[in-house]
Amino acid sequence: MQQQQQCFHNQEITRIHLQPEFQTVQLLCEECVEDRGLTTKFEQLVLLQKVKKQPEELLSKINLDSTVKVFLSRLLKATEDDLKITKRRWSERLQAIKQMFDKLINETETYFDQLKKELEEFRKGLVTIVNFSRFEQLIQDDQQTNKEIQIVNYIKELESGITGQKKTDILNLINGYKEKIKNTQIPSITDRLSKITSEMNEYQSTVTKYSQKCNPDILPQLPQLPLQQSSKILSQRNFEKLLERITNQKRSTTNLIYQAQQQQGINSESFWNSVNNKINLLMIFKSKNKAIFGGYTPCQWKKLSTPLQQGVYDENSISFLFCLNGEDLKFFPIKRENKPAIILNSSQGPNFGGDLNINADFQGGTINLGTTYSNDILPGQPQLIFGSQNQPNINECEIIQIIPQ
Ligand SMILES: [Zn+2]
């Protein structure tokens, strides 16, 4: 039997020493921990102060089902203090943004008041120079005989006068007015916008991180993408789903490089000019009968001189085709069979491995899944199709470049 060692330091007991091999525990003060050389054996030492706040501190160190134990030990990172501090910090940062908007509201009021004032002064000056009160009198005075003639005379005087001193006066007035408008400070959003964008992106990434801290079993999620990019064809949710699949949770930015509608002329020439030499392109198409489909490849698109044709291989088998089925996306990944992911031919439209082939006019084309992209679809499951007419008949097209950070 192991001799029971108790603390004789007469100090505050701070830790429990777990000794599962002897089926015993010891209550220790900090000096005991030092004396017994336990300072590095954290897995056996339970800090009493911590266990009061986080019972999982104890539970994660005893003999429990490993799933439970792993979850609890990861949950230890989520402390109330941390939540409290982060909450306060972000409240302050959001308050600062709010203050920025308060300041913008003030500037807006000042700006429009100033414009109103300058306009008023300008009109006052104009009225004085052209003796406008005389004109008003002429119009209002019902006793006046030959009213029309008087008005014509007034206008004639004005017209002849305008070449002389009156002209100089009016020009001076206009120049002075222009100068004042020019000097009225226009509220600028440039700095604010970049500040808000960067703050909001950081905010998004922080709150996402804490969601994961408090639920360690969920996969770390990529914070929602920078606010600026969206798709006109796909819903934000599906667009983000596509980007997540492509970026594989890594930070990246997007760049819209081509957006066209049939009326404005989607054609192979504008297409190849836009994609030439670019990699990591996501293409989204919408047909006249509302079918939505497209593809992504990391491979480089190149505008070859006709009639050259060339296949480009995707060594990492990342490329995929997709279509929208109801509300959801259906993916068709490239097969690992060393076939070209895309086929370059600038007298045609985009061609994904021969499986999705769009003609130069973006109206004709073929779908023939299974050669390069997987077609292991169970009967009854959605298939990549152009829609009811079985022709691309592309009405809208978006091409987005994904740029890893
Ligand atoms: Zn002690």
Descriptive report:
With 405 residues, this protein is α+β, with helices and mostly antiparallel strands. It has 3 domains: 15-75, no CATH class; 82-190, no CATH class; 228-404, no CATH class. Helix content is 40%, strand content 18%. The chain has helices spanning 30-35, 48-53, 56-59, 66-75, 80-129, 132-140, 147-161, 165-183, 190-214, 236-247, 268-275, and strands at 15-19, 24-28, 45-47, 252-261, 281-287, 292-297, 310-312, 320-325, 328-333, 342-344, 351-352, 356-358, 365-367, 394-404. A 6-stranded antiparallel sheet has the order 4-14-5-6-8-9, with helices on both faces. A 3-stranded antiparallel sheet has the order 2-1-3. A 3-stranded antiparallel sheet has the order 11-12-13, with no helix packed on it. A hairpin with a 6-residue loop joins strand 12 (356-358) and strand 13 (365-367). Helix 5 runs antiparallel to helix 8, helix 5 runs antiparallel to helix 9 (190-214) and helix 6 runs antiparallel to helix 7. It is flat, with a radius of gyration of 37 Å. The model has no long low-confidence stretch (mean pLDDT 86). It binds zinc ion. Residues 7, 9, 11, 28-29, 31-32 line the site of zinc ion.
Report the count of strand segments. Answer: 14
With strands numbered from the N-terminus, the spatial order across the biggest sheet is: 4-14-5-6-8-9
Helix content: 40-55%
Mean pLDDT: 86
Largest sheet: 6 strands, antiparallel
What bound compounds does this protein have? zinc ion
> Radius of gyration in whole Å, from Cα?
37 Å
Query: In percent, how much strand structure appears in the residues?
Result: 15-25%
Q: How many structural domains are formed by the residues?
A: 3
* Apparent shape: flat
Report the end-to-end length measured between terminal Cα atoms: 61 Å
How many alpha or pi helices? 11
User: What structural category do the secondary elements indicate?
Assistant: alpha+beta
Low-confidence stretches: none
Helix and strand sequence? EEHEHHHHHHHHHEHEEEEEEEEEE
